[in-house]
Design a protein that fits this description.
The protein is α/β, with parallel strands linked by helices. It has a single domain (about 10-260), classed as P-loop containing nucleotide triphosphate hydrolases (Rossmann fold), CATH 3.40.50.300. Helix content is about 30%, strand content about 25%. It has a six-stranded mixed beta sheet with strand order 6-7-8-3-9-10, with helices on both faces. The chain has a four-stranded antiparallel beta sheet with strand order 2-1-4-5, with helices on one face. Helix 3 crosses helix 4 (about 145-160). The longest helix has 18 residues, at about 175-190. The relative contact order is 0.19. The model is unreliable at about 255-263 (pLDDT under 50).
Length: about 260
């Protein structure tokens, strides 16, 4: 099984704001004064309604957009652009259809200092990590949605990043596959020891996976609460009273708790 040779990353987001200009020239604040820290090796989720700036914030952390106010620091140094130290997985697996699974995963190592033999070895390790051994030569159309997404996770991890960013990676999957992959994601996180930051609309998913849930609201996008989960990751029970109480707290912060639940 693959092991991460790098130290997991620490992330500090300090008073980060992002503004767009609308077609008629008016300013639009999509993110205002976001501040939080992620300890090395932690699993943190961002939840909130559409338009609250979750994916925008993830893009800023990835270094894909440098036009913002405030500071985003990895290990105390300001993020100045995309880096192999931060992997990213999207909702769409984005595997290239003309390449096999192992070739798709190997693309992430093009700029690495590994020898060709070391690259083949680490690709194979990460295929095994996500449970896809035997499918090395398969093309994306020969994989199920869940398998393709596992391949995308392997590609995000194969460069041994300090931080893995996950932008709704399970959002397009059916409910049963999604639950299975949540459990797989926890197993992979424990095996790799990497810092993970997940964007999701699914409150249950956020609580099941995370150490901390950051709750966001829209208009403008902002962080309104940090919820510490405080439940053991091993055999975390989705139907326990503690889990339900955390879900109520998150939904309250989102102002989306149904009246029946409140009653």
């Amino acid at each position: 099984m693959a092991a991460n040779d790098h130290q997991p990353g620490r992330l500090d987001v300090r008073a980060v704001s992002k503004r767009y200009t609308t077609p008629d020239g008016a300013p639009l604040d999509v993110l205002v004064n976001a501040s939080f820290s992620v300890e090395p090796g932690a699993f943190v989720s961002l939840v909130g309604p559409s338009g609250c700036g979750k994916s925008t914030l993830l893009r800023l952390i990835a270094g894909l957009d440098r036009d913002y106010q405030g500071d985003i620091l990895a290990h105390g140094e300001r993020i100045a652009g995309a880096s192999l130290s931060r992997g990213i997985v999207f909702q769409d697996h984005r595997l290239l259809p003309w390449l096999t699974l192992e070739q798709n995963i190997g693309l992430a190592l093009i700029n690495s200092t590994l020898t060709p033999g070391e690259q083949r070895q680490t690709v194979q390790q990460h295929i095994e990590l996500v449970g896809l051994q035997g499918f090395e030569k398969a093309y994306p159309h020969q994989l199920s949605g869940g398998m393709a997404q596992r391949g995308a996770i392997a590609r995000g991890l194969v460069g041994q990043p300090e931080i893995l960013l996950l932008d709704e990676p399970l959002g397009a999957l059916d409910a049963l596959t999604r639950v299975r992959l949540q459990e797989e994601l926890l197993r992979i996180w424990r095996a790799e020891g990497v810092t993970m930051i997940l964007v999701t609309h699914d409150v249950d998913e956020a609580i099941f996976l995370s150490d901390t849930v950051l709750v966001m609201n829209a208009n403008p996008g902002r962080i309104v609460r940090q919820v510490k989960v405080g439940l053991p990751h091993v055999q975390r029970d989705r139907v326990s009273t503690e889990f339900a109480a955390l879900k109520r707290e998150v939904l309250d912060a989102m102002h989306e708790r149904p009246a029946l639940a409140a009653a």
